[in-house]
Amino acid sequence: MTSPLHRGLRHLALRVIDLPRSRRFYEQLLGFQSVWEPDHENVYCSSGTDNLALHQIPRDELALYQPTKAQLLDHIGVILDSPQAVDQMYREILPKIESLGGRIAKEPKQHRDGSYSFYFADPDGNLIQALYEPAISQLRIGLSNED
User: Fold this and answer.
1) N or C end of the chain: smaller count of CB under 10 Å?
2) E strand or H helix at 89, and its extent?
3) Residue 27 and residue 19 in contact, taking contact as beta carbons nearer than 8 Å
4) Can you give the pLDDT of all 147 residues of the chain as single tens digits?
5) Which distant-in-sequence residues (6+ apart) come within 8 Å of 143 by Cβ?
6) Long-range contacts formed by 130-135: CB under 8 A, 24+ apart
């Protein structure tokens, strides 16, 4: 296999039902910060290494976004450094997730492959996996060798 020309899946764009609510969720739970707001219907955020775009679904299109019986996007994930970091994140978001429009979907769990995670949903129902994965969690993507 040849090495890829890309540097990873570092950008995610989500269409959202309520932009201010989704923005608060991603800022307050995952630490994203706004880096550009070209207008009142779009906000571009960064975690420092990843980019998240939130796009308000136009009001005249909202009827097309009725809840479906199944989500087409299975989940997105955030990588954590250790199982202890997964537990810490779980403890930190648990008291505030519902007030931000989200919910816990699955409690922390050890997986057969050595990974450890829990799942939570954003205000639009998108599942997010907070994941320690032994091989990926040790990578220092975007950091210098001195870090």
Assistant:
1) N
2) helix 83-93
3) no
4) 455 666 777 899 999 999 999 999 999 999 999 999 999 999 999 999 999 999 999 999 888 877 665 666 889 999 999 999 999 999 999 999 999 999 999 999 999 999 999 999 999 999 999 999 998 888 876 544 444
5) none
6) 130/77, 130/78, 130/80, 130/86, 130/89, 130/90, 131/77, 131/78, 131/79, 131/80, 131/86, 132/79, 132/80, 132/81, 132/82, 132/83, 132/85, 132/86, 133/79
Give the residue among 54, 117, 110, 63 at the shortest CA–CA distance from 90: 117
First to last CA, the chain: 29
Q: In this structure, which CATH number among 3.40.50.620, 3.80.10.10, 3.10.180.10, 1.10.760.10 belongs to the domain 11-59+74-137?
A: 3.10.180.10
Question: And the tokens for 10?
Answer: 């570092």
Cα angle value 144/75/119 (rounded, 5°): 90
